[in-house]
Amino acid sequence: MSLKGTAAITGVGELKPSRDPGGRTTMELIAQAAVEAVRDAGLERQDIDGLVVAAPMSWSPMVMPSVVAEFLGLQPGYAGLVDLGGASAAGTVWRAAAAIKAGACRHVLCLSGEAQDPKTFYQQQRGRTPPGLSVREFEAPYGPVVANTGYGLIAQRHMYDYGTTKQQMAKVAVDERTNACANPNASFYGKPITIDDVLGSPIVVDPLHLLEIVMPCCGAAAMVVSRAEDATSTPHPPIHLLGFGEQVTHSIISCAPSLTQSPIAVTAQKAYQMAGVTPGDIDLASIYDCYTIMVIITLEDAGFCEKGQGGPFVQEHDLTYKGDFPVNTHGGQLSFGQPGLAGGASHIVEAVRQLSGQAGERQLRNCDLAFVNGNGGIISEEVSLILGNSL
Question: How many Cα atoms sit within 13 Å of 331 on the Cβ side?
């Protein structure tokens, strides 16, 4: 199924990430983002006839679309829930386009957000895994096998197999921080760092340092995906969904087919093929960056460099908005912040802003095509999108 030319992102809304929700609930955060996105699309609430919500939101594990719809005063003809971890936001976009192609709706509101209190974030991880899952049998008895540990293993293996260095991984964090310093909404706006700063920060799980790992915070993001025929009279240029790919290969890291090759190798190719483009045509890589090693692996698997050459690639290229290969020009989750699943949405929002010429100081001189990737779990759930400002 091709969705090329079916739908376009016509509006976005995004809250500035914060370390403290200030008493606001997740629902209040996503509602604010929703209002901004609908207004940005030049629409009214009654125009929204579709709703897709990224999950999970800790406060409502069941019937989430109806709870959100009720709170927002919507009665959508299509409602969906996407549970792909960090790939959920990207997953909402192509599902919205598919619903539009099926004739179920014309304007779909895609939402994600979290009012997680960082002070209790890690304590709340305890007891989240229900009995009967493979992680309890095959991983939990052997130690704290969570995301940090999993990506630490991935980084170690990549270093062993391909000679990737700590300095190369650190440069990813430095370049993205430079981008954040041009984004007033970024958590680390105005706080540049050096490679020495990264390597001098505490090791969280060898070989990953504190400044190579996302900071949990609060926030929300929303996108309006509209039928192509209805996207021509919007306030901003419509940003078309040209291609997508999705793939899930495993749940726990001990069952991963590979520690150094992700399902992006499949999803990116699907997206390129549908869009009719190649990696060489891409102007912006807006990719999920929960850890520095994930950026390197994504660049490889998405075809921007050969497998195993991600380390030298980031070392040789300038990944900033001023550079020859811009990556995560909003600062990425490493420096923009990771407000729950809205962290994944930030990559979509930034791509839309760059493609429509609304990125301010960090605006790229030429930006017509963007590759966006969402990563869920531990390189287990992947969604790739190709977005463009023309068909």
Answer: 30
In the chain the domains, ranked by start, together with CATH numbers, are 7-119+217-239 (3.40.47.10), 144-215+243-388 (3.40.47.10)
* Closest to 170 measured CA to CA, from 138, 205, 213, 139: 213
Rounded to whole angstroms, the Cα distance separating 191 from 336 reads 11
Q: Taking the complete model, does pTM exceed 0.90, yes or no?
A: yes
pLDDT tens-place string over residues 206-237: 999 999 999 889 999 999 999 999 998 889 99
Of the pLDDT bands very low, low, confident and very high (cuts 50, 70, 90), residue 140 is confident
Burial group, residue 38, by CB count within 10 angstroms (0-12, 13-18, 19+): buried
In which residue are the tokens 């919500």 written?
53
Structural element, H or E, at residue 285? strand 284-287
* 3-state DSSP assignment of residue 322: coil
CA-wise closest residue to 350 among 365, 370, 334: 370
CB-based burial label for 289 (10 Å; 0-12, 13-18, 19+): buried
